[in-house]
Amino acid sequence: AQSVTQLGSHVSVSEGALVLLRCNYSSSVPPYLFWYVQYPNQGLQLLLKYTTGATLVKGINGFEAEFKKSETSFHLTKPSAHMSDAAEYFCAVASNSGYALNFGKGTSLLVTP
Amino acid sequence: KAGVTQTPRYLIKTRGQQVTLSCSPISGHRSVSWYQQTPGQGLQFLFEYFSETQRNKGNFPGRFSGRQFSNSRSEMNVSTLELGDSALYLCASSLLAGARETQYFGPGTRLLVL
Asked: What is the C-alpha separation between B22 and B109, in angstroms, rounded?
């Protein structure tokens, strides 16, 4: 079954520092991978999506992720953190059958001044 | 375009009652999926509707049901509420069916069961 594991339930970075949120996937077929962000008391907002093709995916708000098949990873990065990036981040993979998104447990990003 | 809207945003119910949540997808989107979000279990898929038909259902008891109308609006119903049903219920819409489609989420309905 398709699944994702997010390493680190909490990540803290200083404003201006590199953001790195880790996601590893398990998939028996070429995966469709997603990163979503959730701000307090809000729904999920799509940051970026990987289907096929280019392995470096650029998303909104300066985020990007690189698909590495050899490492079964899809880590999310941003060169310089802003205070407004503080939120919960979810990695997800489309299920084997293709009808559901299987989400990771989420990583809470804290940005300190 | 207006985003996905969900009503109500907050609900308080007592055990044994039933509840109906509503979701209006983005205009032109024909697929609606529902997810339950809890601190313990995270985000879990409930069901997906496309063209008024339930295509798939997650691993939830029969107390959880839903439907979709001809205008693509969807409702989900939970009968005989239990304390464990307290959660944020998220609805997502997409142009076509399937999780490989980009899904756009609403703000959610937060349900508290007392």
From this structure: 9
Residue A90 pairs in a beta bridge with A36
- Residues from A contacting B (CB-CB < 8 Å) are 32, 36, 41-46, 49, 51, 90, 92, 94-95, 97-106
The phi and psi torsions of B75 (rounded to 5 degrees) equal -130, 145
User: Is the minimum CB–CB distance between B113 and chain A shorter than 8 Å?
Assistant: no
Q: Which residue stretches of chain B are H helix? A: none
User: Smallest CA–CA separation between B29 and chain A, in Å?
Assistant: 16
pLDDT tens string B12-31: 999 999 999 999 999 999 99
With CA atoms as reference, report the closest residue to A103 among A22, A20, A33, A51.
Answer: A33
pLDDT tens string A3-14:
999 999 999 999
C-alpha neighbours within 13 Å on the C-beta side of residue A90: 20
